[in-house]
From TrEMBL, chains A, B:
PANTHER family for the chain: NICOTINAMIDE-NUCLEOTIDE AMIDOHYDROLASE PNCC, NMN AMIDOHYDROLASE-LIKE PROTEIN YFAY
Segments forming domain MoaB/Mog: 6-174
Transmembrane segments: none
Family: Belongs to the CinA family.
Protein name as annotated: CinA-like protein
Region listing for Disordered, in residue ranges: 109-129
């Protein structure tokens, strides 16, 4: 059996159950993707004697130890001092790291405390594992002929950046992860997990690549995972399966991997040379936030109106008082005028509007919590859609699913108009 | 030291990173609430030899072992057979459990496979830990004078029901969990973790309650954890420490536990009877989304303008062309006019505006990525703030920290005006 890896997460907050251990999950997925065998995970608190014990246990059974947590500036951040002590070496201050940390504080015009300097102290003999997004560096250290140790901070974003930018290339250079597992995730909107699983039954049964369904908050994913000697060979195994799955899902499949409904809409807007504005009521900015999360959104997103108060609906979007009185703000005619109003106001090609009842208060028998109206005003007129999401989903999910459904409405309309030749691109 | 508990999660899906280990988090929270010391967590796959090894390691350091997973009907569910083997006892079939399992299948009119009967086979000498919601029972077993073992299925809902209905009363009857641990988390904005840790040094050094700092995305938390015989006694220990920490943090402490900057601003707006509108550029709706995530936001939030395109800044917010030409859209004068413009447009008491460069593109030497201007227009005039967040944080964090900083600007201004008597409430 190849020498295997082990994950050691250090942090009392994990033992108290204050946070879920997403770092272990991320590293486990990555080790699997690299084909590095991984048989054990452990969690200990910020306690030197138990960290020593956990290191003893791990060294006795694993050749690669990945630690997360305990690299912060405070007195209960003990990972590097304890590792140094464990292997009987002193801590050595790395001036270039100290300079980096000082520079970060200067850049933020924040006072730097003496304790921050501790983050530049690493076990003698260990290489620096640079932290591009935070103050705490980790280490890459062949502490013993049979023991390679990598340390990461507990902050997930910093840990992930360090893993991807430095740790993975380093491990490959040391001969780890020669067999690769490559995954590709197809993303779907507007189809249920069970229905998609039925359509894809033949694929779900096969082995390499494997296909597994996941669902949550309105989205359904199919993860294709292939095992091969090289990334290219793995991708070659994935390609025909992806093509087959896309064919049977049709427009319900909106993208893959890191693509979002917002990024896909962005591509469609760019390719068709059209622009978008939004009028949001119940979502209060979620749609705009999703659209502008995509770099370069300014090429196609004008902005819009957060018409939370009805006064803004009438004043800025020219929704008629009579409509609000006769049908209410959560109604088909109101959302239609909101979409057309914001399109006109911003002189954009598309106006996307939402109004609904997110709860927990404000629902009635006729208009229950979870009732949401979407409208898309465009060159060919206005399309309106009613959603009934159910109160039991809760406010957060109702707002999230509504905003994603609005983007999906835009996506399908652009695709349809492009297919029918009404839109170029 | 009291004899301590240890969590052993069994399941290859955890090692592959296919699921997050929420069971460990749940049990950790429960052990903390019961005051049962808990120093280690481990994860192993569905592999007998490694389960044996993990049991050896756990028995050597812990008196109470809680396992999750591996109780299913399939061949890779090995927890009970391996535990029986580990302690040298046979598996014994429990007829009443078999009857229960058969009944469940009949009730669902589903065929029962022969392998399901395996779930009724438990180590000789172990008591049954009934599973009210699933087929797989667990065990309660004093396997050795010093080792008490409880096993649970991996299905979270089943594990939780079994824990609450049977395991907790059982453990209390055995003298475990006579103490309770209660935690309270103070939330801070506008102060660094290291600086706050220095101020709070005396508290961080004390024992019961303990105080521990955590930081991420601009927020710094102090977690106060007290151990006592009753929840009331624990809260009584926390109260003076919380008071002391709040006193030294001052307005940098914005709330506790589930409070958010948006919910705290909501309370302040309600208590002062004032209303808010927003003009967002770089954040594209994040501030509005955060505000409207709080139920009842319609009482104080009018809405606002997503002024992503400069045309909307001039057209709706009356930002002067000359200002945009002379200073650019990301400038103090521009953000000032945005805040005053949206306040006027919506006739609200407060107008909150943001404009900045979230990157990755669009930065210059004078105006680097991460440069953000905030403005708050109010009854007493307009306050402007400059943030330099640094490009390396990435677009998402820059947008998030900007939106939270804007809410913090509003929070501090309302508190200050209320203190000076300029605002009632």
């Amino acid at each position: 059996m190849a020498v295997s890896a082990e994950i050691l997460c250090i942090g009392t907050e994990l033992l108290l159950g204050q946070i879920v251990n997403t770092n272990a999950r991320f590293l486990a997925q990555e080790l699997a993707a690299l084909g590095i065998p991984h048989h054990y995970q452990s969690v200990v608190g910020d306690n030197p004697e138990r960290i020593h014990h956990a290191l003893d246990v791990a060294m006795a059974r694993s050749g690669l130890i990945l630690t997360t947590g305990g690299l912060g500036p405070t007195a209960d951040d003990l990972t590097h001092p304890t590792i140094a002590e464990h292997f009987g070496v002193p801590l050595v201050r790395h001036p270039e790291q100290l300079t980096r940390i000082e520079a970060r504080f200067r850049a933020r015009q924040r006072p730097m405390s003496a304790t921050n300097a501790r983050q530049a102290d690493l076990p003698a003999g260990a290489e620096v594992l640079p932290n591009p997004t935070g103050t705490a560096p980790g280490i890459l250290w062949q502490a013993r002929p049979q023991v390679l140790i990598l340390t990461f901070p507990g902050v997930p974003a910093e840990m992930r950046a360090m893993w991807q930018q430095t740790a993975v290339p380093f491990l490959r250079s040391k001969g780890w992860g020669q067999e690769v597992f490559i995954s590709r995730t197809l993303r779907h909107w507007g189809i249920s997990e069970s229905l998609l699983a039925e359509k894809a039954a033949a694929y779900l049964a096969q082995d390499n690549p494997t296909v597994a369904p996941y669902a949550g908050d309105g989205e359904v994913k199919l993860r294709i995972t292939a095992r091969a000697a090289t990334p290219e060979a793995a991708r070659a195994l994935i390609a025909p399966v992806e093509a087959g799955l896309r064919a049977l899902a049709g427009d319900d499949c909106y993208g893959a991997d890191d693509e979002t409904l917002a990024s896909v809409c962005g591509k469609l807007l760019v390719s068709t040379g059209t622009t978008l504005s939004v009028a949001e009521s119940c979502t209060g900015g979620l749609v705009g936030a999703a659209i502008t999360a995509v770099p370069g959104a300014s090429r196609y997103f004008a902005g819009g109106v957060l018409a939370y108060d009805n006064a803004l609906k009438t004043q800025l979007l020219a929704v008629e008082e009579e409509i609000l009185i006769a049908h209410g703000a959560v109604s088909e005619p109101a959302v239609r005028q909101m979409a057309e109003g914001v399109r006109r106001l911003t002189s954009s090609d598309w106006g996307l509007a939402l109004t609904g009842i997110s709860g927990p208060e404000g629902g009635t028998e006729q208009k229950p919590v979870g009732l949401v109206y979407l409208a898309l005003a465009g060159p060919q007129g206005t399309r309106v859609q009613e959603l009934r999401l159910g109160a039991e989903r809760g406010r957060e999910a109702i707002r999230l699913v509504s905003s994603q459904s609005a983007l999906d409405l835009l996506r399908r309309e652009i695709i349809a108009q492009r297919a029918s030749g009404m839109l170029k691109g």
